[in-house]
Design a protein that fits this description.
mainly alpha; two-stranded antiparallel sheet; 9 strands; 8% strand
C-alpha cells in the first residue's frame, strides 16, 4: 500500500472545521473577531431568496452576467458544477426541497462531461455537483459518475514532469506542458476516487501534481504566478507565465486563493504537512496584500494596485481556504481574516440594490488582461460565498456536503 493510500485511509470522518455552533439562530447572535455573525446569516438568507427567485428561469449553466443577467453554457464550460453546488448550499441553509430538486436536475446536465478528457476542470465540474449529490442523497449514480470523471482527469497526467496538463485535447501539442494554479482545486476529485475505489492511482497522481506545483509556483515571498510551463516531452521546467494575471511576475488574486484552498485540501486528504505549510505561505502573502476594505484587487502585484478593479470571487474562495487552514493549523488569524472577508463581501458586494440582478455577488472580475468580464457576477463567487458562510453557521451540514475531515 502506498504512503498516500495509508494517509487517505487514516483520514477521519466528521467535521473538524472550526467550532460547531449551537445552531443557526445562536450563530446569528454571536460576535467573533469583532464581526457580527448576524450579517453573515442575513447574507445567506439573501442568497437563498435570490436563488429561489432565479432558479425556475435558469436555462443552462450560468457562466457570468451581462447587464446583470446570467449568460449560459449548455455543456457547463468549466463552471458547470457551481450552479448545482449553489443549489445544494441553498438547500442546506433553507431545508426547502425545491433546491434539492433543482440541484439534481441541473447536475444531470453534466453527465456527458464524465468522459471529457480535454480539460483539467473536472473537479470544478463534478465535486460541488455530483460528489456533493452522492454525499447528501446516497444515490449510486452520482458516486459512479464522479469516479468516472476522475478516470478521465488522470488521462491528462504527464509522468515525465509529474503534472496534470491544464488545457487542450490530449493529442494537441499546444499548451501540452502548461500547468496552472487552478488545477489544485481539481485534485480532490482524485482523492475522492481513491477513497471510493481503493485504487491508489488517483490519489498518487494528485499528490505528485501537488508536489510539482509546490516546487515551482511559490516564490520566496509566498506570491505565485498563474501559469508554469514544462517541456512536455522531457518534463524539464521552462518557467512561469500568466493568462489571467498581469504578468508572469505578478500575483493573480484568484489563483492565489485557489492555491490556499487547494494545498490545504491536499493536506487534509494526505496528512502531508508540507502541503499545509505551502498553504500557509500563500495565505500569509495574500493576507498582507489585502486592502482595508477586504475585497481583493484582481492582481495583488499589478501596477495600479491597491487602486484597481476588484474580484470578489477571489475573496470568497480565499475565505473558504482560510477557514480550512484555521482548522488545519489552529492559527486564529486565518479564521479572523476569513470572517472579515465574508463580512466585507456580504456588506459591500451583494446585489441587494438591483432589482434586475440574477446573481448574488457583484464586483467580480473574470479575466482582466482579456478585458473579459470586468466587475461582473460569476457563479463561483455565489457558490463559495455560501459555502464560506455556511462553514461558519452550519459546519456540520457543510461537512456532510463536502467532507471537512482532518488527518487523524
Amino acid at each position: 500500500m502506498s504512503v498516500s493510500r495509508r494517509a487517505l485511509l487514516a483520514t477521519t470522518a466528521g467535521a473538524a472545521a472550526a467550532g460547531a455552533l449551537a445552531g443557526p439562530a445562536a450563530a446569528a447572535d454571536r460576535q467573533e473577531a469583532g464581526v457580527s455573525l448576524r450579517s453573515l446569516r442575513a447574507a445567506a438568507d439573501y442568497a437563498v431568496e435570490k436563488v429561489r427567485g432565479v432558479a425556475p428561469g435558469v436555462t443552462g449553466f450560468p457562466v457570468g452576467t451581462r447587464f446583470e443577467k446570467w449568460t449560459y453554457s449548455r455543456g457547463g464550460d468549466w463552471v458547470g458544477g457551481f450552479w448545482p453546488g449553489t443549489l445544494w448550499m441553498a438547500w442546506l441553509h433553507s431545508k426547502d426541497d425545491s433546491f434539492r430538486t433543482w440541484a439534481v436536475d441541473s447536475a444531470r446536465g453534466l453527465a456527458p462531461r464524465q468522459y471529457d478528457t480535454s480539460t483539467h476542470d473536472l473537479g470544478f465540474l463534478f465535486s460541488p455537483s455530483w460528489v456533493t449529490a452522492w454525499r447528501l442523497t446516497g444515490d449510486e449514480e452520482w458516486r459512479t459518475g464522479a469516479v468516472r470523471a476522475a478516470g478521465s482527469l488522470i488521462q491528462r497526467y504527464n509522468p515525465r514532469g509529474k503534472f496534470i496538463r491544464a488545457w487542450g485535447a490530449l493529442d494537441d501539442r499546444t499548451n501540452a506542458g502548461r500547468v496552472i494554479m487552478d488545477t489544485m482545486m481539481n485534485l480532490d476529485l482524485l482523492a475522492f476516487a481513491s477513497r471510493q475505489t481503493g485504487d491508489d492511482r488517483y490519489l498518487d497522481i494528485a499528490v505528485e501534481h501537488a508536489e510539482t506545483a509546490q516546487r515551482v509556483f511559490p516564490r520566496a515571498d509566498g506570491s505565485t504566478p498563474h501559469v508554469f510551463d514544462f517541456d512536455p516531452d522531457t518534463g524539464a521546467p521552462v518557467g512561469p507565465g500568466t493568462v489571467q494575471g498581469y504578468s508572469p511576475a505578478s500575483c493573480w488574486s484568484r489563483g492565489q486563493a485557489w492555491g490556499i484552498y487547494g494545498f490545504t485540501t491536499m493536506y487534509r486528504r494526505t496528512g502531508n504537512t508540507e502541503f499545509r505549510d505551502t498553504a500557509r505561505k500563500l495565505a500569509d502573502f495574500a493576507i498582507a496584500a489585502l486592502t482595508p476594505d477586504h475585497v481583493p484587487v484582481w492582481d495583488y502585484l499589478a501596477p495600479q494596485q491597491p487602486y484597481d478593479v476588484k474580484d470578489a470571487s477571489a475573496g470568497a474562495v480565499m475565505a473558504c481556504g482560510l477557514l480550512d487552514l484555521h482548522a488545519a493549523t489552529g492559527r486564529h488569524t486565518y479564521r479572523e481574516v476569513a470572517l472579515r472577508l465574508l463580512t466585507a463581501l456580504s456588506d459591500t458586494c451583494l446585489t441587494r440594490n438591483s432589482a434586475r440582478a440574477d446573481a448574488v455577488v457583484a464586483r467580480c472580475t473574470r479575466n482582466r488582461p482579456a478585458e473579459d468580464g470586468i466587475e461582473i457576477s460569476l457563479p463561483y463567487a455565489d457558490y463559495y460565498l455560501l459555502e464560506g458562510i455556511l462553514r461558519v453557521l452550519r459546519p456540520e451540514d457543510v461537512d456532510r456536503a463536502i467532507d471537512l475531515s482532518q488527518p487523524s
